[in-house]
């Protein structure tokens, strides 16, 4: 390959770029016309409700699936990965939500899973346990993760800690792009905070981070750019300076639906005007002989007891 020619456009090119990318599974269009740029030292958040196409998007970037439309570029060059290994070789590491760990193996062993380090030669070749144990401990400490003991089975760590080990591992093995698929989805507030802190750590080390979530409250504090997906299409791609947390929340599919729900609930009768309207309707119905509810008892939801909770 002619590196001199490739060098100049690549110098300014984003680590990862999608240009009007799309993905069809047979007749199903899972993703349509999505563009995205990931630069070093930046966190790009991908937000969207269930079925919005988030996983499809990261599967393309991670090399699991190929885009059927548009282009996927790494360091300014178009790529067609045929396996996650190819993406990994280009420095694109993915931490899936159901972390593929061996729960009974020690933390250090999981840290080096699939990339074990050996020592010795010929028949004397063996795993360099000491090196791997010390390295895992040091790398975790460098990321601010202070585990009591790297010999403990990884299955004994909390979900948040396991995510952090996976992030530290990707950083150690030289990832340039780190994809996190809903790392905070199953976590409580405190654990989510810990994971968000390591996302920032990875960013500060110069990685380009792609953070998938459906929670704008997790995305906003750490994100530099926000891609909003809905039914496979982009409904917004914003830099942080262009958008507030409130707007981000409002743009999310849940936001609009929540507003509709509030509206409907209001109609059921939290405002006196609306109660009056409903009452009038019932009165008319009663006059016409439709209903049999005495008007006085008809509605005033606010006067009802606090629900007969079970
Ligand atoms: N392998 C597949 N074959 C056919 N359709 C698929 C396939 N994978 C995804 N889809 C469809 O593509 C759409 C987007 O799915 P995707 O998994 O990307 O959504 P998502 O945003 O990750 O949702 P969730 O939040 O539930 O994980 C869905 O309608 C889904 O049914
Ligand atoms: Mg998904």
TrEMBL record:
A GO MF label: ATP binding
Keywords linked to the UniProt accession: ATP-binding, Nucleotide-binding
Keyword Nucleotide-binding on entry: yes
Pfam families linked: ABC_tran
Domain ABC transporter: 16-256
Superkingdom assignment: Bacteria
Protein name per UniProt: Sugar ABC transporter ATP-binding protein
């Amino acid at each position: 390959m002619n590196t001199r020619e490739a060098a100049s456009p690549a110098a300014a090119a984003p680590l990862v770029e999608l240009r009007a990318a799309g993905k069809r599974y047979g007749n199903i269009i899972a993703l349509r016309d999505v563009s995205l740029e990931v630069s070093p030292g930046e966190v790009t958040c991908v937000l969207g409700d269930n079925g919005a196409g988030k996983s499809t998007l990261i599967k393309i970037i991670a090399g699991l699936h190929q885009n059927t439309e548009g282009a996927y570029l790494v360091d300014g060059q178009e790529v067609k990965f045929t396996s996650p290994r190819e993406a990994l070789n280009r420095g694109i590491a993915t931490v899936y939500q159901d972390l593929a760990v061996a729960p009974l193996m020690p933390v250090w062993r999981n840290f080096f899973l699939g990339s074990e380090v050996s020592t010795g030669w010929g028949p004397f070749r063996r795993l360099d346990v000491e090196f791997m144990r010390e390295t895992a401990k040091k790398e975790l400490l460098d990321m601010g993760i202070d585990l009591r003991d790297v010999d403990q089975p990884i299955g004994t760590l909390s979900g948040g800690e396991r995510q952090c080990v996976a992030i530290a591992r990707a950083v150690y093995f030289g990832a340039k792009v780190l994809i996190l698929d809903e790392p905070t989805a199953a976590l409580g507030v405190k654990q989510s905070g810990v994971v968000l802190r390591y996302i920032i750590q990875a960013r500060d080390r110069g990685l380009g981070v792609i953070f998938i979530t459906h929670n704008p409250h997790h995305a906003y504090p750490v994100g530099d750019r926000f891609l909003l997906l809905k039914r496979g299409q982009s409904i917004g791609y914003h830099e942080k300076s262009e958008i507030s947390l409130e707007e981000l929340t409002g743009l999310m599919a849940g936001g609009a639906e929540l507003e509709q729900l509030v509206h409907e609930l209001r109609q059921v009768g939290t405002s006196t005007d609306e109660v009056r309207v409903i009452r009038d309707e019932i009165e008319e119905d009663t006059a016409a002989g439709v209903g049999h509810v005495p008007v006085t008892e008809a509605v005033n939801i606010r006067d009802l007891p606090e629900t007969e909770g079970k």
